[in-house]
Amino acid sequence: MPQPGPPPGGTGAAWAHGRQTAALQQAAGAEGQAPLHLQPAHGPWQPVTWRRWPGPARPAPPAAVVAVFGAAALGTLALPLDRPGMGWVVAGTGAAAALAVAGRAAAPDRMPPALIPAKPPARHADRIGWAAATLALLTVGTFRAAGWLFALCVLASLFTAALAVGGGRSVRAVAWTVAGQPIAALRALPWLSRGAAVLRRGDGTRARYALTAAVAAVLLLVFGGLFASADPAFAELVSSLLPTLDAGTVARWALLFPVLTAAVAGAAYWRAAPPATAHLDVPQYRPVRRLEWLVPLAALVLLFAAFVAVQATVLFGGAGHVLRTAGLTYAEYARAGFWQLLVVTGLTLLVLAGAVRWAPRAGRGDRTVVRVLLGLLAGLTLLIVASALYRMGVYADAYGLTRLRILVFACELWLGAVFVMVLIAGVRLRAPWLPRAVLAAGVAALLGLAAVDPDRTIAEYNLNHGPVDVWYLRNLSADAVPALDRAPAHLRLCLLGENASPLNLTRESWYEFNLARERARPLLTGISVSGKPLGCPVD
Questions:
Q1: FRET partner for 285 with CA separation of 20 to 30 A, picked from 52, 144, 148, 197?
Q2: Residue 203, Cβ neighbours under 10 Å: how many?
Q3: Residue 160: which domain range?
Q4: Could you tell me if 496 and 435 are in contact, meaning their C-beta atoms sit under 8 angstroms apart?
């Protein structure tokens, strides 16, 4: 029997492709399997702008839609924007769970079309590690009340959360992963809306689930209200669980819900169809002639060596040597040069990055010279870091601790760890792990700072070493209250007065729970905050 030919106006190639697709689908159906839905190997044509990031081919799966909106609703209810609290880690955990559900539901979209080279998926352990780091940073708000410290943790958690979603091994890949999250949030909104439209056109099962949930909510509201009116203790429990409904709360919800929806949807969009970033992980080397980089770097090494030699003289000569040569006290000398040394440390990292990019390494001699000079520069910088830390210690002994001083001390320790890693990486002149290790060290330094409890450490140190800056200690957070409570009797009321505020004295909702404020509350009972408390020095 003769086979039918292509239709008028059609091409033979398109007609043959359609016949092949129909035959495969018919064969699959004959074997009792689900019909195959084949697409061209190249996938649909995309705009040139998004050729490396075409996005998911289908709308958001129903499970992903529900998970995204559920996580956004949980975060809207739980986030205490005006203070550190347990709600931050609750919202973060909800977002992580939503991404896990959405990622599993959208698993087919993560597989690239046939015949298209794609970057292998990032190691699963890396993503889990960054997700754990994100939750650890948000957990700080449950234990520490210092707003400045928790603000740094939230800022760092944005970077770790981006890496948990997108991965990245090189500096360029990590930077694109972080910068691309807002773009993903914008591109995810149409993807999510199409998925929500599919969800609304369901077969009625989901509508029954929604009706069941609504009935359960109505029953809880009715009987819960009756129980609350019948028993004051139960009413207090209910009031601590439910947020206060007022204009401010509604406005906060109206602002938070769309922002959190876009953020979680963007992360789910990225996980469903990540952009191609393999080209960003390829090292970029642009070697120059040996003399062109050897002379400047060798001169810098000699300068660093001269400075370290002078620092050794000062270190062993002590305060008398400084007073004779510089006309300054030891503490003044330490303060005068600390910030310059911090800038030198940061600039040296840029110099090392440029040297690695431009230094020739074709021959064995080139590689040896690179290792020697970069090793000397990193080693001398470590000594400069040690000098800066010593200066900060001398300065703190003379003038006491402050938040800025303890934060800079932690930053110097982190930079020292970075230079140690640079020395290790210089052995092979190849360290794809270094960018992630630097970020991980920064997260570890921040978590270590939170573990030290800086506000309480500042209060204890300054009260024990003097002189006491009453007005500075008075403005520390509730973390410092246990230490301030042990201050001399003539200073205690003054030091605790600023913390005896409604923020620390009022019973909080569950999502606002903070261990430091909870511990400080009994110690602040009965202390007045109005006017100038008894015991404060007169201006």
A1: 52
A2: 7
A3: 54-281
A4: no
